[in-house]
Write a structure and sequence with these properties.
534 residues, alpha+beta, six-stranded antiparallel beta sheet, five-stranded mixed beta sheet, 8 helices, 43% helix, 16% strand, rod-shaped
């Protein structure tokens, strides 16, 4: 089947890294644009507030005469309106052509302003006209100077207030609900809003600020001033274009770097794969995959692969030796049995029936051993049932009472000792039988078997007074079809499988089987199995 290009780890890594960077950059870009827009909007609003307060201070401190509003100088670079509280336009910026968002759409006054009527509180005497200082500022009742201070910072009077609902709305609510300032002062409250205006043919969005002021004639007016949002829109637009233009470049760089890094990191894996494919094709298990010099996951994978190949090579080699040895061992009794049968067929009087029976029994035992080893190699799990090892040893010893070398059982002072282990009774009986057969084959006068409990283990020891096992051969004798030189006589019936089967059965039951020197000078085999009662 054809491999899909995006099915490789390298391609998936590149796509994953690119996707993560894309999401991160888009989120960061949105956050930057929102923050930039909010900051520039705040700056525009602050500029509108300052302009409205500055014009309001001018209105509040200007000398009261007939030309108070007709001759009022207003900035041309910002939309400014001065209106009465009922919405009649008194003055506007000269360059203003169109406006929305202040509640007064007029851009030119519709007639002269009526004579101002002083505002008189019903519970207090009329406020006398303020005294104008030589510098042109009113200083009676705090004067416009105090109003200017409150308008700029709001330190000496009412704190500056803004209406949250006014921000971002096209409808500009005027602060008519607040108290009118006294003569010559401006209100400390600033009403903020949003709208559009056209100056000298250029339309744009604006932030607006509205401040109340009471002129020296006693008339309360509203000053609307705006600050353009064109800088904000231009900055946001430019930033957006730059980000959109730079994002593909950044993603290309990220994808390319990720591709190169992953290709370099996975290069040893490709080498391991090629070598494994070559090993599979050649069936040469002596070859090994290359191990990188780095101490990373790939290097550990290579080392583990080589360890697996080593174990596999040893297993295959052991299997080959097993097949070869089994063929050799089977060939002798079969050939002997065939010869006896052919001689008996030609000369019935020469038929050696006892010898034929002996060869048949030996052949049967060898076949049974090979079958058991095959089951053990296949990973057959023994039945987990409690088995009294002490009782099993007594039964095997009693059945050998008439043998040339009797078996003495030593189970300590407690004759009713129960040493239970979990496992297969048949396999454990085979293990004990093989150990006793081996001991009797090499013993001179006695074989001793002991069973005891300790440290959560059942310990079975089989000792003889024979020649013992040389220390250099104590592991080799557990290999299959291995017989020491002095024990290679086939007349005793040994095929070199008994101890190998015994150790395999011990391992399958979670135990160990070792050999050492007995006190009498012979060999001492010690079996340790987990205690079922622990």
């Amino acid at each position: 089947m054809r491999r899909r290009p995006l099915g490789s780890v390298q391609a998936k890594t590149v796509l994953g890294a690119t996707a993560v960077v894309t999401v991160a950059m888009v989120a960061a870009g949105i956050a930057v644009l929102l923050s930039l827009g909010a900051n520039l909007t705040e700056q525009a609003q602050s500029q509108a507030n300052d302009t409205a307060r500055r014009v309001a201070v001018t209105v509040a401190t200007r000398k009261a005469d007939a030309a108070l509003y007709s001759g009022l100088a207003l900035p041309d670079d910002a939309p400014v309106q001065v209106t009465t509280t009922d919405g009649r336009l008194l003055a506007a910026s000269r360059t203003l052509e169109k406006i929305s968002g202040t509640g007064v759409p007029d851009v030119r006054p519709r007639g002269s302003a009526p004579e101002p009527t002083p505002t008189v509180s019903p519970t207090s005497a009329p406020t006398p006209p303020p005294t104008v200082s030589p510098s042109g500022t009113a200083d009676d009742h705090g004067g416009a100077g105090g109003g200017r201070g409150r308008g700029k910072g709001g330190r000496d009077g009412d704190a500056q207030e803004t209406t949250p609902s006014g921000r971002g709305s096209d409808d500009h609510a005027t602060p008519t609900g607040t108290a009118d300032p006294v003569v010559g002062e401006i209100s400390g409250t600033v009403q903020e809003g949003a709208g559009h205006a056209t100056l000298d043919g250029r339309g744009a969005a604006y932030r607006f600020a509205t401040v109340k002021a009471t002129d020296l004639a006693g008339q309360t007016v509203l000053v609307h001033a705006g600050a353009s949002l064109a800088a904000r829109e231009s900055a946001v637009r430019t930033t957006t274009v730059v980000m959109l233009a730079g994002l593909p470049v950044l993603l290309t760089v990220v994808g390319g770097v990720t591709w190169l890094v992953t290709r370099r990191a996975l290069a040893p894996v490709a080498g391991i794969r090629r070598e494994m494919a070559a090993i599979t094709a050649s069936e040469d298990l002596s070859r090994r995959v290359p191990e990188p010099a780095a101490h990373d996951e790939v290097a550990r994978l290579a080392r583990t692969t080589n360890e697996t190949l080593t174990a596999l090579e040893a297993s295959v080699e052991r299997q080959r030796r097993f097949v070869a040895d089994a063929s050799h061992e089977l060939r002798s009794p079969i050939a002997s049995l065939r010869t006896q049968l052919e001689v008996g067929s030609a000369h019935p009087q020469l038929l050696d029936v006892p010898g034929a029976v002996k060869d048949t029994v030996r052949l049967q035992q060898l076949a049974a051993d090979l079958l058991l080893l095959a089951r053990l190699d296949a990973g057959e799990t023994p039945t987990q049932r409690p088995v009294d090892l002490a009782a099993l040893v007594r039964e095997e010893a009693e059945g050998r009472a008439a043998d040339r070398t009797p078996v003495a059982v030593d189970i300590g002072q407690d004759a009713a000792l129960r040493a239970e282990v979990n496992g297969s009774r048949g396999q454990l009986a085979r293990l004990v039988r093989n150990l006793l057969d081996n001991a009797q084959r090499h013993a001179r006068t006695e074989v001793t078997v002991s069973v005891r409990r300790g440290d959560g283990r059942i310990v079975l020891a089989v000792a003889d007074d024979g020649a013992g096992v040389p220390e250099a051969e104590r592991e080799r004798i557990f290999e299959r079809f291995v017989r020491l030189d002095e024990a290679r006589s086939r007349d005793d019936g040994g095929a070199g499988l008994g101890l190998a089967i015994a150790r395999d059965v011990a391992h399958r039951h979670g135990g160990t089987l070792t050999v050492g020197a007995a006190p009498s000078g012979g060999a001492r085999f010690e079996l340790r199995l987990p205690d079922a009662d622990v």
